[in-house]
Write the structure tokens for this entry.
Amino acid sequence: MAISHRWAQLVCGGTVAATALGCVSAAVASDWPELRGNAQRTGVSSETVAPPLALLWRFTGGYQNANSSAAVVSGKTAYFVTKGNGTQGGFLYALDVETGAKRWSFPQGENGLPQSHVFSATPTIANGKVYVGSSDGAMYVIDAVTGQEVIKFNTGRPVNSSAILADNILYFGSNSGTFYALNPETGEIAPGWRKNYDAGDAVNSAPLIADTMVIVQSADNTLHGVKRATGIPKWKYRLPYGANPNTLTYGDGSLYIPSGRRLFAILPASGALRWATELPEDIMGAPVSVDGTVYVACRDDQGSGARLYAVKASNGRGEWDGPARIPNTISSAPVVAGNFIYAAGSRGTLTAVDRESGAVKWNYRMEASSNRPAVTASNFQGQDVAATQAAVSKDVTVVAPLTIADGTLLVVSNDGTLSAFRPDAPDTTGPVSTDQFPRTGSSISGRPPFTAAVKFADFGSGVNVDTLKATLDGKQIEVGYDALKGWAYFQTQSTGKMVDPPLSNGRHSISFSVTDYAGNETVSAWSFVVDNNLAPTAKSAPVAPKKTDLKPGAANATGGKTGNRPSATPGSTGAGPGRPIGGGSGFPGRRRGN
């Protein structure tokens, strides 16, 4: 397919591009210029960023459901995409990475891309330009300093594929099924390529460079190995199950990609299977390969969270004695910074895991931005307005891969927000407590299951569950915590061998206390009246304990302890694609010997 294009010259340091912001500098170690940091999509930072982190700033655009486009950083500027407010289309924003102040947005004006189109790929920064694909079928090239359009390549179908610029060749794919290798200034086919590559189905994932090969993933679950210099296809590998976009990574000599429950390690030069390993449940998000270890997460087969495994890059066998338990499902690609893995997922939860031990060192739950689009019948056609407004108001899910640059963790969430977290961000305010139950002064049955609860949220460094305590009438009681909803609770047992006695009639006082990761404490204390002539509160209580709830000192509150049930440990095989493997048992928090 021919590409139409428009072109304009960029003069860096001259009258065209020189501004008060200066000229965009060459990439440095602290930059994160493209999807997952580099053309190998490793998700590994050269920096050491140790938890706990605290929120430094937030910048909010408009709500964009399932926004999988990550932030990128060059110098002191962060770039990310989301919709504008209300009924507008998509914008590309350039922000000061230290303050969150807006430098510019593209397109200029208030409406964004026409006809409600959005930027649908993670931007790429190279040679003073921003390359970003759009649902209108174009790959835009924007001046990174001024925000002015430099050139635009039209493909005819949405461009969900993040670009790579290497050896002055621009690589990207289109939902037209074509994988392009272009001169980035003219749009002509790259030297050495006779034609652009036809993948046979939509190329809705970012390409990846592995030595002399460029690897392309198409929507029919096929990997294509293409020679970078010539565009000649060398191999194809069809995965047995669905493979989500942008979950391919390269490291330690292999391509790693999840498909269903299986993690495949494939040789990039030949497409031959090196090994495959099977996890207990479907794999969530992209793997990360660093220092001979591949970290990969799957759904928790014993609850609603996730299990993070560490396997050897050489053979797929387990590095830890068992997985780390994470309280939230993982919905985006994690990143590694020093000895820590940062992951994000449902309800805006962020988690930091120690790579050596598998211990959870930090949990944070983001709150939805108050900057909302107006939900009307016109801009959410065919949807129930009230239900849609309720969903939008709570949607802080993180689908976009995480970014680490300049000592900062950058998180794009569905509410249109880019949030920046740093270890040195100030936090002098304790958690906020709300929604006390029973309400102060109210009358309630004391018969089991009696529940008392309060919701804690912390917008600085996060609620440190390990410090959670509670007393009833001055005596310490066992307390649980729902990590997804933020409820701290006490509940008496109503069934089983040990049924708790009812609370006595009369007035009782209860107190919950917790600190954030910066050490700021909050105490929530109130009183209520017990009248055992009233019905029990099971149906009206705001929370009920679950096996996955975290309690201080209980299973996996810090990732270093376990329950009694054995957990599957991944194994390995060289027997060929699709063969189930695994078995065994183990416990998280201890690294195996050599």
In short: The chain has a mean pLDDT of 84. Residues 432-530 form a domain with the Immunoglobulin-like fold (CATH 2.60.40.1220). Residues 348 and 424 are 21 Å apart (CA to CA).
